[in-house]
Amino acid sequence: MRERTFFSVVAAVQLALTIALTAYTFGAGMRRFDVGGDATVAEVIGQGILTALSFPLVAVLEHVPGVRFPGLWGYIPFAANASLWGLAAVWVRRWLRARRGGVRRTR
Question: In terms of Cα–Cα distance, which of 46, 68, 66 is closest to 58?
Answer without folding.
Answer: 68
